[in-house]
Every structure is written in structure tokens, then in C-alpha cells.
Amino acid sequence: MTIIVILDNIRSAHNVGSIFRTADAFGITEIYLCGTSPTPIDKFNRPRKDIAKVSLGAEKTVPWRYFSSSLRAVNSLKKKGIKILSIEQNENSADISDIQLYQNTDIALVFGNEIDGVSSKILRVSDKVFEIPMRGKKESLNVSVAFGIVVSQITQYVKLSYKVNKLTCKNKSQI
After folding, report:
1. pLDDT tens-digit map of 23-51
2. S-S: 67 plus which of 4, 73, 115, 149, CB 3.0-4.6 Å?
3. What is the pLDDT of residue 14?
4. How many CB atoms lie within 10 A of CB 42?
5. Which domains does the chain have, with CATH numbers?
């Protein structure tokens, strides 16, 4: 099973670093950093210390690539038959516990911007939208916390084969 993570315009380098660290722990296949999401390597090809500090080296063990457009990233995966599952609260979202229905499917999990969430363009082309039920007074979780909950939920049903790339896991070519 392939699990790709798409970060749709995440603003915080700390959230990105935390997601890399959790992705490494759960054997995520690859991370697509999109739009304004910071990447582990800056525009001058230098490592970003703010991401590295939080990820503790996971940015070197989890393959990643950058897309200028989240929609372009999603469409490239849809062409390969990968199911797009967005994590967002809306009128059509299903409870996250139903994500187990995709346990034997290659999937991409989309997480949105800390303020605006997953973009409406991405929601329209998603195969399914899931949400984490909120039982307290707050309406949402930090994106890196939500990521951990979702990945834990899906991977408890699946045994992922995690292989560290023995070559360097530097960024793929920018698309």
C-alpha cells in the first residue's frame, strides 16, 4: 500500500517538520509539499534549520517533492489511480473511522492550510473527505496533530513495508 501525503499550502515550518517526523515513524511513502508549504531545502539549496530542528533528520529519510500547485500534485496522482482522501471538516465529510475502507488501496492524504484548510478545488476532486470528530469546545486541531491521528488510524489496519532509501532522500525534481 502506498500512502502519499499532500501538504496543501501549510504555512508553518514547524508543522512541516513535525509531519516529516511522524511520517517517518509510520512509514509514509512520500510527502508532496505544495504551494506555500516550506520545503526542507530553501531556494538557495541550503537545508532549512527550522524544519530540521523539529523533524530530527526525518526530512532526509522520507522522500519528498515540491509542486507549485496542490491541484497539479493531486491530478498527477489521480492519473496513476491513487485515491485522494482529504482531511477537512465540511458538510460532506465522513468520520475518520471510515478511512479503514481504504486499507488495501494506494492513497494520498491531503492536509490543508492552518487557517483555510484544504482548498475548495482540491475538495471537489477528492475521492472522499474525512474529518476527525471534535468532542470538546474547540473546532479543530493543529495540522500536525491531525496528521498523527489520521496516519495512526489508517496504519492500524495496514502493515506497511517501510524501506529506507539507501540513496539520499533529497528532494525530487521540482515540478
Report:
1. 999 999 999 999 999 999 998 999 999 99
2. 73
3. 97
4. 12
5. 3-155 (3.40.1280.10)
Distance between CA atoms of 76 and 82, rounded to whole angstroms? Answer: 9
Asked whether 126 and 85 are in contact (CB, 8 A), the reply is: yes
Angle at 104 between CA 109 and CA 152, to 5 degrees: 50
Q: How far apart are CA 41 and CA 152, in angstroms?
A: 27
- Reduce the DSSP state of residue 92 to 3 states and report it: coil
pLDDT of the residue at 158: 63
32, 5 Cβ separation under 8 angstroms: yes
SS3 category, 50: helix
Q: Where are the alpha helices (DSSP H) in 27-174?
A: 49-55, 70-78, 120-125, 143-155
Counted residue by residue, the chain has a size of: 175
Q: What is the pLDDT of residues 120-171, one digit of tens each?
A: 999 999 999 999 999 999 888 999 999 999 999 888 766 554 444 433 444 5
pLDDT in tens, 124-136: 999 999 999 999 9
Q: How many CB atoms sit inside 10 A of residue 92's CB? A: 10
Q: Please enumerate, as own/partner, the contacts of 77-81 that have beta carbons within 8 Å and a separation of 24 or more.
A: 77/4, 77/6, 77/108, 78/125, 80/106, 81/106
